[in-house]
Design brief:
Chain A: Belongs to the leucine-binding protein family. The complex is a heterodimer of chains A (391) and B (297). Chain A is an alpha/beta fold. Chain A has helices at residues 2-27, 49-68, 88-101, 113-126, 157-167, 183-186, 189-198, 217-226, 237-249, 264-271, 293-305, 319-332, 338-346, and strands at 35-42, 76-83, 106-109, 130-132, 148-149, 174-179, 202-208, 230-234, 256-258, 280-284, 351-352, 359-360, 374-379, 382-387. Classes of the chains: A alpha/beta (391), B mainly alpha (297).
Chain lengths: 391, 297
């Protein structure tokens, strides 16, 4: 009797130990008393490496700064960084490794929409909180989604901002779109066309431009023949620069509005001549140009932690996401869990977006935290923040 | 006026395709190798010009010369280190050797591109145009001076290469080696040197195209990939057996492509080169200017 009672007690104790251990393990993935492990995924090599380290470092500097100031609730942030090369299979493999082998607490990653989109299913299945780094496709964060958040302007919204801006000018009535036809550009077209029409502007159609275009003569001449008042350019930097150069050469003299795929300073450097840029405007994520006061804190932070990095627009694309992660970790408290993290993220309201023009607001059923941007343009040869109406 | 503008751009693009195609044809005729790394020679030469001109501050003309010498040297080194050891390995058998060499060029393509990303991967590069005046106006027609230079250089280089093969001793040895390697060896031609020289010359063709195209496009490690496809299409269209044919093939491609884009669909411009390759291979595999070769069995 005594023996069987002892056996039962031992079995119960073992069962209880196993059960509580499982719970403890599940609750403590990526957490120790002194660290929070976050997995980052970026395009560090390959064709999109241009965006890789600058965007990763723009987020890392926030974590570095937090660590330098004692961490969050007694824990310092430990980063594990993986390369996706902007390819879906590699991004998925990286996410699996980070979740299963490295047992990270959460993910902060995604430089290319096409690459990171397949990671979405894995993240939702494994119930791992994720902050999108710089990928813009709406589908990554679309509902139903309990775990993925984004704290910068999603891809489809810049079309609306551009259309609303064009509509503030009485001279601009007919709009043609020139753009790439890859996944990054394609997510922008439906809302762009819808917004152009909603603003009672005449939509003249979409003129495709190759991502690796080396010449845009055919496109420019075709656009000229349509006689538009404005051109919306939804193209990557290389193709945008080619189009602008050829537009200037062939006398296409109308305002051009670029999406968030391009940055004025970067275009200026690529083209090396301010003339083709005279009509150029872009949607910007940021509060001000990089040389103005609102950006000084972030520029200084980048110089402090990554003095060799170039101060460029791409450097701060991931910063607001890191700020949101830090804010949620603080709010979730020392007794941290993934579910508490998700809840804390969803409760963020009107948080300063750091370098971003928007205030970050999440909700349980809306994980797009940032929905506003502003238009910048070249005025008298200088990059000028124009706001939301034609100047 | 629009027609003239399109024509000027189409001809200059076609000249670039022709030059790249010419480099492919030289290697193919010499050794039967489709060189998939040829686009990387295009890219590497452009970066060499950039390094000489921008980083070392050499004059434009001297920088171009340095880049051309670099292209030749790179072609020779590639042949000597990556192609010849496989070609000389008799134990593989003919079919396996050909496959191994093709795979070697694919490997080279990836390796050169990867190496280029180490110093150049994360910044924007731009090579200035040869002339400070970017455009000239002729009767209201705006012409790019860089595009005019491309046309002139491409014509001159193609004629020079044709004369080189028909008039010079080395050119005749190259032709002899490509027609009958065993026979060439029997009469005392050092075929190893001939192959190196052929790869060097082919690299010059690709390199000159890269140097000329660089001011119109931008310098990045992947810049040769697209041009390789266009060069292959030009070579297929003109015929792999003819220097002049490849050049004309490139011109036809450049002109048809841009008119097609302007008056039919710009969305089709990207797939024009692969369509040309497929159509030519299906209906006239010897190309427009090639002739069918009979093989006695």
């Amino acid at each position: 009797m005594m023996k069987s009672s002892l056996k039962l007690t031992a079995a119960a104790a073992v069962a209880a130990f196993i059960a509580t251990s499982d719970i403890a393990l599940a609750e403590e993935a990526g957490l120790t008393d002194t660290t929070i492990k976050i997995g980052m995924i970026g395009s560090l090599t390959g064709p999109a490496a241009l965006w890789g380290w600058p965007t990763i470092n723009g987020a890392k500097m926030v974590y570095d700064d937090i660590n330098a100031n004692g961490g969050i609730n007694g824990r310092k942030i430990e980063l594990v960084i993986e390369d996706s090369q902007c390819q879906a299979p590699l991004a998925l493999a990286a996410a699996k490794k980070l979740i299963s082998r490295d047992e990270v607490f959460m993910l902060h990653g995604g430089s290319c929409s096409g690459a990171i989109l397949p990671v979405r299913d894995l993240v939702l299945k494994e119930k791992v909180p994720m902050m999108v780094l710089v990928a813009t496709a709406d589908e990554i964060v679309a509902q139903p989604n309990g775990y993925i958040y984004r704290a910068f302007l999603p891809g489809s919204y810049d079309g609306e901002i551009i259309a609303n801006f064009i509509a503030t000018s009485p001279q601009l009535k007919k709009v043609v779109v020139v753009g790439n036809t890859d996944a990054v550009a394609n997510v922008r077209y439906p809302k762009l066309e819808e917004s152009i029409k909603a603003n009672n502007l005449e939509y003249l159609g979409l003129e495709p431009l190759e991502v690796e275009a080396t010449d845009a003569t055919a496109q420019v001449l075709k656009v000229k023949s349509l006689n538009p008042d404005a051109v919306v350019l939804v193209a990557r930097p290389e193709a945008s620069a080619v189009f602008l150069k050829d537009a200037a050469k062939l006398g296409l003299d109308v305002p051009v509005f670029g999406s968030t795929l391009v940055d004025l300073q970067d275009l200026l450097e690529r083209i090396g001549d301010p003339k083709p840029m005279a009509n150029m405007n872009v949607v910007s994520f940021y509060k001000s140009t990089l040389t103005e006061a609102p950006m000084a804190r972030w520029v200084d932070m980048l110089k402090k932690y990554y003095p060799d990095d170039k101060v460029q627009a791409a450097a701060f694309y991931g910063t607001s996401g890191a700020l949101a992660v830090v804010e949620a970790l603080k709010r979730a408290g020392p007794d941290l869990s993934r579910e508490k993290m998700v809840q804390a993220l969803s409760e963020i309201k009107d948080m300063d977006g750091g370098p971003m023009a928007c205030s970050v607001t999440f909700a349980a059923d809306d994980h797009e935290g940032c929905k506003t941007g502003s238009i910048w343009g070249m005025r008298d040869g200088n990059i000028t923040a124009l706001g939301d109406s034609w100047k | 006026m629009e027609i003239a503008t399109l024509l000027s751009v189409g001809v200059s693009n076609g000249c670039l395709y022709g030059l790249v195609g010419l480099g492919l044809v030289l290697v193919y005729n010499a050794q039967g190798i489709p060189n998939f790394a040829h686009g990387e020679l295009f890219m590497a030469s452009a970066f060499a010009a950039y390094t000489a001109n921008i980083l070392f501050g050499l004059s434009y003309a001297l920088s171009m010369l340095v880049a051309i010498v670099f292209a030749f040297a790179l072609g020779v080194v590639v042949e000597f280190l990556a192609i010849r050891p496989i070609a000389m390995n008799r134990s593989l058998g003919r079919a396996s050797t050909e496959v191994a060499i093709v795979l070697s060029t694919v490997g080279l393509m990836i390796a050169i591109k990867g190496l280029a990303r180490i110093p150049w991967g994360d910044s924007v590069r731009k090579l200035p145009a040869a002339f400070s005046t970017e455009t000239i106006s002729v009767g209201g027609l705006v012409l790019s001076t860089q595009r005019l230079l491309i046309i002139v250089v491409a014509f001159v280089l193609t004629i020079a290469i044709s004369l080189f093969f028909s008039k010079t001793s080395l050119g005749k040895k190259m032709r002899a080696t490509s027609q009958n390697t065993a026979g060439a060896m029997l009469v005392g031609i050092n075929t190893g040197h001939i192959y190196s020289a052929t790869w060097g010359l082919a690299a010059i063709c690709g390199g000159v195209a890269g140097i000329l195209a660089a001011p119109l496009i931008f310098l990045y490690p992947d810049m040769g990939t697209r041009m390789l496809l266009k060069g292959f299409a030009a070579a297929c269209l003109g015929g792999f057996g003819s220097v002049g044919g490849v050049f004309v093939g490139g011109l036809v491609m450049g002109i048809v492509e841009i008119f097609f884009g302007r008056y039919l669909a710009t969305s089709m411009m990207d797939i024009f080169a692969p369509i040309i390759i497929i159509v030519v291979l299906l209906f006239r595999p010897q190309g427009l200017f090639g002739s069918r070769s009979a093989v006695r069995v």
